Amino acid sequence: MKIVGADVIVTCPGRNYVTLKITTEDGVVGYGDATLNGRELSVDAYLREHVCPLLIGRDARRINDIWQYLYRGAYWRGGPVTMTAIGAVDVALWDIKGKALGVPVYELLGGQARDGVTIYGHASGADIDEALADAASFLERGYRAVRLQAKIPALDATYGIRTGPGLTYEPATGDRPVEEVWDTGAYLDFLPSLMAAAREQLGYGFHLLHDCHHRLTPIEAGRLGESLEPYRMFWIEDATPAEDQAAFRLIRQHTVTPLAVGEIFSTIWDCQVLIGERLVDYIRTSVPHAGGISHVRRIFDHADLYGVRTGSHGAGDISPIGIAAALHLDLSVPNFGIQEYMGHLDPAGEVFTTSYRYEDGLLLLGDEPGIGVQVDEAAAARYPYIPRYLPVNRLRDGSMHDW
Ligand code: GCO
Ligand code: MG
User: Fold this and answer.
1) What is the mean pLDDT of residues 125-142?
2) Higher-confidence residue: 166 or 322?
3) Which residues have CB under 8 Å from 187's CB, separation 6+?
4) Is 169 a catalytic residue?
5) Ligand closest in space to the Cα of 122
6) Tell me, what's the pLDDT at 164?
7) Which of 151, 301, 398, 403 has the smallest set of CB atoms within 10 Å of its CB?
8) 211 Cα–ligand 2 center, Å
């Protein structure tokens, strides 16, 4: 089953997505998500220049060998660009294997361990009332878990807040990032009042989550976690810059609020200390950004050994292919925790047709062979790439601050 084609599709139906398309000599086509938010064209170039030519002529059935060839065979290994490219190859090959054998990928992973995948939605608002109304609308639609973010009153802008109607928040267009002001003190003072209001008005009958976006020091994170303990959070996410795994030892000493991290990790080694020392409760590595189904499955197995559950990244910058790939893994692993699901803006649905669907707080996968996402290339061509950047943060004195 030789690979005869490997092409990259870059499109912007609502936001930028990069898709790898692999074709075999028998005419089977597999798709993988190669989107890396704000760095889309780097992965596009890495694939086109360094990966696609090496795939031609290889046996598409040998997913493990191709993965090792691309990872171990590279002197400059690891990092988000490389691992997103490898992830796209891996998912496209699983898609091909499923289609060739006529079964959904989760069947190849051992079959379903649950009926559906519990997701959390993104509620946000310009103030507490607006955020709670948004959260209530998720609960009315059957969601059992909601991430809650609101604008910090003392700041002009706060990342992670939807600015208009629809399901997602978008990075600004333009040739350079918007610069926002960050104030940790204002954030730490405000957040408990948001969560207190959420529990007072909406009760304790749903999972409440929050994303800190890597802005705190370990001791600040400990203080935040402790201050939120009465509101029984499902997790606080990305409390500190993720590359400092040992920082979580300090956070753990100060709070029993569960911790989640890992959406920016690329490999199992990025989570080795965190998992091995049980420093987090949920590992958020995502299929597209950490080497695909093959590698993230290994991370999840490693996590299971230490009682750490999964909680994969599923923001709108992960394409429907990446979300679908995550769902196959979520459905099959023993230690599934929760799956983030932000949804996709129109007109993404013109380009990507998915077999997964929402029902009563869950995403359900059908029995379509492979990953279960179709790509309309003519529709993709109607939406050319638009440069977009995530914002950056400065303190009030002008210092750059962490993501
Ligand atoms: C999340 C993420 C997003 C990221 C975005 C970056 O938890 O959904 O933190 O808010 O900022 O996916 O590409
Ligand atoms: Mg996050």
Assistant:
1) 96
2) 322
3) 152, 215
4) no
5) 1
6) 67
7) 398
8) 5
Q: How far apart are CA 25 and CA 173, in angstroms?
A: 40
CA 214 to chain centre: 15
122 a catalytic residue: no
- Closest C-alpha to ligand 1, atom 12: 315
Cα 366 from Cα 142, distance rounded (Å): 20
Q: Distances from the Cα of 286 to the Cαs of 32, 107, 125, 203, 292, in angstroms?
A: 13, 20, 26, 30, 8
Q: Whose CA is closest to atom 3 on ligand 1?
A: 315
| CA 59 to centroid of ligand 2, rounded, Å | 36
Query: Encoding tokens for residue 146?
Result: 């909601």
Distance from residue 317's CA to the centre of ligand 1 (Å)? 8
Distances (CA, A) of 305 to 65, 102, 196, 276, 278: 26, 32, 35, 9, 10
CA 289/CA 262 separation, integer angstroms: 10
205 CB-contact burial (10 Å; exposed 0-12 / middle 13-18 / buried 19+): exposed
Q: What is the mean pLDDT of residues 196-208?
A: 98
For 255-305, write each residue's pLDDT tens digit. 999 999 999 999 999 999 999 999 999 999 999 999 999 999 999 999 999
Q: Cα-flanking dihedrals φ and ψ of residue 28, to 5°?
A: -80, 135
Instruction: Tell if the pTM clears 0.85, that is, is over it.
Output: yes
Domains and CATH numbers, the chain: 3-104 (3.30.390.10), 108-374 (3.20.20.120)
Q: Is the pLDDT of residue 167 over 60?
A: no
Residue 301's identity, in one-letter code, is D
- Round to whole Å and give the CA distance between 123 and 340: 12
What's the pLDDT tens digit per position in 144-163?
Answer: 999 999 999 999 999 998 87
CA angle 71/317/285 to nearest 5° reads 45
The pocket around ligand 1, CB under 6 angstroms, is made up of 37, 160, 211, 213, 263, 313, 315, 317, 340, 390
Catalytic residue (choose from 159, 341, 356, 383)? 159
Which residue, 23, 15, 70, is CA-closest to 294? 70
